Amino acid sequence: MKKIIILWSIIFCVLFLTSCASNKEYARIIPDGTVQNDYKKFIIPEGYTYYYSGPEANPTALVGIRDDYEMRSTYWHKTYLTKERMAQIWDAIRDEWFLFGSASREIGVSTNGYRIMTKEGDKIGLLFSRYKRVVATFPEPKVITLSVPFKTQGIFRYDD
């Protein structure tokens, strides 16, 4: 009886651990001042398809994914990016629209530019986000998924 319990315990542990294992390949998201400066100057790099996250009028992030990659996400929405649209997104990301309005500019709320890299070191995306945490995975070759940008601590958005 003791051997049967041990055997079932081992089987359970093996099944549990294998079900928790992930075959996903994760992207590296690296802070990049050039990305941030380009977005500040409303420079739109060619060769990328652009998406925003959050409400259309007040997005919380903008990402450009290289044209040879497919984006799969229900939380990111494709947008045709013009300088005017980029300015609107820039203002929405900068402003603490639900809490402080335009006062966030005076209190020094930060914004964040990142490059999205494969594990091999290829740059496949540009991210500009109000929040610093985003998870990107490659479920298939040339396919990327992105989480919604999120903060992990604090009550106010500027704590991140």
Strand order of the largest sheet: 2-7-8-4-3-6
**Strand count, sense and closure of the main sheet?**
6 strands, antiparallel
How much strand content do the residues show? Answer: 25-35%
Structural class: alpha+beta
Uncertain regions: pLDDT < 50 for 5+ in a row? 15-21, 96-109, 155-160
Distance between the termini: 54 Å
Average per-residue pLDDT, rounded, comes to: 77
| Proportion of helical residues | 10-25%
Count of all domains: 1
Radius of gyration: 20 Å
Summed up, the helix count is 3
Helix and strand sequence: HEEHEEEEHEEEE
Features:
single chain, 160 residues, alpha+beta, 6-stranded antiparallel sheet, 4-stranded mixed sheet, 10 strands, 24% helix
Briefly summarize what is shown.
This protein is α+β, with helices and mostly antiparallel strands and about 160 residues long. The chain contains three helices and ten strands, in the order H-E-E-H-E-E-E-E-H-E-E-E-E.
Give the helices and strands, then pairings.
Layout: H1 2-20, E1 25-26, E2 28-31, H2 33-40, E3 48-53, E4 61-66, E5 70-71, E6 76-79, H3 83-94, E7 112-117, E8 123-129, E9 136-140, E10 143-146
Parallel strand pairs: 5-10
Antiparallel strand pairs: 1-9, 2-7, 3-4, 3-6, 4-8, 7-8, 9-10
